[in-house]
Every structure is written in structure tokens, then in C-alpha cells.
Amino acid sequence: MLGGESDSGGAIHRALMGGEERVIDGFMGTILWPGSDEYLMAATAYGRVGSPSLVARPVSAADVAAAIAYARAEGLTLSVRSGGHSPMNTNDGGMVLDLSRIREVEVLDNNRVRLGSGAVWGTVAQELQPYDLAVSSGDTYTVGVGGLTLGGGIGWLVRQQGLAIDSLLSAEVVLTSGAIVTASEASEPELFWALRGGGGNFGVVTRFTFQAHPLRGVVAGTIHVQPTDLAGTLRGWRDVMRASPELLNSTVLATPEFGPEMPAQARVLVCFGGADLAEAMMAIRPLLALSGVTGDDVELKLFVEVFDEPSAPPGSIRIVDRNGFATDFDDGLIARLTTAQASFGDAVLMVRYLRGAFNRVPADATAFAHRDAEAFVSSAAFLPPDAPDEEEQRILDAWSFVAEKLTGTYGNFRLRAEPDVLSLMYPPATAARLQMAKRRYDPENVLAHNLNIVPWAHPLPPAY
User: Is residue 63 a part of any domain in this protein?
Assistant: First the structure.
């Protein structure tokens, strides 16, 4: 029992060390209990307020091993979080393993960088800026290195550098057995393959070593477009991007009205991965000439300045989200997409262009297999919490018409573990190989509170 004696082999003891109560043998980090000052924040993930029995904040791989052993001995559900941008990063009654104190950013030789899993990508960009280096990562400042990387990592430099996993050289991994191993092409190569897109199913990664890339600055900003002809904007944007250099990364973002001070918007976001303003503007200028453009704020920036910090959705909002990859972002798909989007009501649409380095990695080289895509398409509709299930189903039915022209799904943008999510994320050969890796590295499915790859053949269990 937490807070008392245990019959789990003497694994629990109490001692006051530096004013903090330790209850996990060998654990030198911090334990947060319900009612403590930081507990509520650590137990809340992307709008979901969890109620775990405790939150463990390790400071080392050895701490992680001790926390896993404790959770196993006590039969506690284990949720692992780095940035905490998924509701699956918390639970009720179990343990949250919060990696936020393992957050170092260390520049090594030959432009390699070692990042703690709990570091956030905005801080990474800030720390690498004096070295004129960058690693392709997500869009949000506080997204954690661990969660984004293990899911693939689609970010602002995806066309020139590929996914975050495409720059990954090795990972320090704590297995559920307690063993601490290094996964790379030369050491535990099957684990290394599985980690690159297979999520947190195989072990808890405490540190990542990446090959960073030279980047002095970027030319980036927002091009504002009238929202009245979204289909025309998407067609024109696609045509420009097909002819553009791979240094030009771009996303179309359409948002509904959020009150009188936030009218409906359509925006073309750009990030040219280089500091030559003249070269960048030569590539960006055709986007500025799109029909309906009303203005822009495109300028030379530091890479860290392109990171955004959107607010977490309020707990009272019900989100219906879906996404997929478009092998060919053709006119027919655009028509289906904009028709469906108009029927959703309050909904956000994001379309990101991918062609480039993203496509040059073989489909079987990593567990992220959807490498033939031209664009990534994501939609999120917002419903009141008491909306009838029929309303959600109406949105899903409309999305299914779009999905006929898409393949796969990006797990990092899925908020719930619906029964079909794994079959969409992984083609059959990839899924079979991942299940074999799961049997080898986590045969008891200790790491199940995620988009869970089970080591045995039965349907996906609920995430929470």
C-alpha cells in the first residue's frame, strides 16, 4: 500500500532526504503526492485532469528503472510523459513518470547533440542557436523531445531534414526489466528500429543523441488569406509548393470564428530553412501572389522564434480529430476535404507539405512507414461536452469520405486510442514486426497506457 508497509519484497522504505519523502528504493528524484503544490500540474495532460496515486520525477535512468520496478510491484498503471501534450500522459490511480527533470541539451563533437527526453523543443532550439545548429522538430515550444521523437516528429524542417527520427543516432533506453541499454544501428538495432515511430511501447527513453544540422536562421512568418475560398487557396498553395525548393516548408491553417475578436481565418505559414533573405523570398514570393492574400509578416528570424504555444483545449470541449497522409494532394481530394470541413461546424484544418527528405527514407527503414506522402492532412472539430453521440458520428461519416483518398494516420496527433488507430498507423508488415519487438522488450505489456502495441494477438485495450 502506498504510504505504508508493503509485502513487495521490501522494495519500499521511507526516509527524509533533503526534506522530501522517498518511498521508492533507489529513487533519487522527486515524488509528488495528491494535494502537493506541483501535483495537479504534473497530473494534468492536454486538458485531462488525472488523479494518479503519485507522480515520480526521476533525474536519471537508474531512477526510471527504480520507478518502473515499483509500479510493477504495486500493480500500478504507468503513464510516461515528457511534454505532456497527450491526454494519455496521465491516469487515475496509477503512477505518472514525469521526465521533465531529465532535460539536458549537450552539444557533442561532429554536430551531434544529446537531449534529455524531458527537454522541450523550444529550449533545444534556443540552446543550439549559438552553435548555428538545429534538429527538425515539432511546432510547439513546450512539446517534449521524448514523445514527439518516438512518434516520428513532423516539424518545420521536414522537407529538408525529414522527420525527427531521421536524424536520430542512438537512444538510452530503460527496459521494463530494469536493464538500461543503448539502442542504435550497431547496438540493439531492432529496438532502435521500433523506437523510431513505434511510440513508448518498448522502453522508457531517457536520452536521445541526434545528428544536428547547420542552420543560422530561417525566413518565416504568416501569410494571411481571405477564408472565403479555402479550396482555391489549397490548390494554389499546392501548385506553388510542388515547384518550390525543399528549403521551403509550409502549412495551410484554417480556423473557425472563436468569438467576435477572433474571426475565421485562413493562413499560409512558411519557414524557409536558411538565412539568405533574397533566396528565401524568391521561393516565398509565389505564395504572396496567391489569390485572396491580405498581408504577411514574413521576415528573417531565429529558428526558435517559429515555435508556437497554442493553448490546451478547455476540458469542457469535446474534440473529434482525424488525420492522414495524401500520396497525391489532387483537386479531387481538396474538393472532398473542403466540403467535409465546411460541414463540421467549428473545426480547425491543417495541411502540411511534405515532399523532400521525408520521402527519401525507405518505408521499412523505420517504424514510420508512410513515406510516399505529398501532404499531411489533419482536422479537429469542436463539440460541446454534452453533444449527442450522433453528432460525433456525423463528423466521422463526413471524414470517411475524405479518408478514402488518404492513407495511414499520425499517432502524435491522435488524442484517443480508437480501435482502428494501430491498423491505420502501421501497415501489416510493420505492425507484425513491431509486435515481435514488443514481445521481446516488454512481454508483460507494462508500457500499455499509450497507443498500445500488445505483445499478444488480441484487440487494442482502452488507453484510459
Answer: yes
Residue 159 CA from chain centroid, whole number: 17
d(C-alpha 334, C-alpha 403), whole Å: 12
In sequence order, the 6+-apart residues with CB closer than 8 A to the CB of 403 are 322, 324
Mean pLDDT by 10 residues, the chain (464 residues): 30 34 84 92 88 97 98 96 85 96 98 98 97 94 95 97 98 98 98 97 98 98 97 98 98 89 92 98 98 98 92 71 97 98 95 98 98 98 93 96 97 87 96 97 96 77 40
Q: Let me know if residue 27 belongs to a domain.
A: yes
Distance between CA 410 and CA 151 in Å, rounded? 8
Q: Which residues touch 186 (CB under 8 Å, ≥6 apart)?
A: none
Measured N-to-C along each axis, helices 331-343 and 230-242 cross at an angle, to the nearest 10 degrees, of 140
Is this structure's pTM higher than 0.70? yes
284 and 401 share a domain?
yes
Residue 252: closest CA among 276, 273, 269: 269
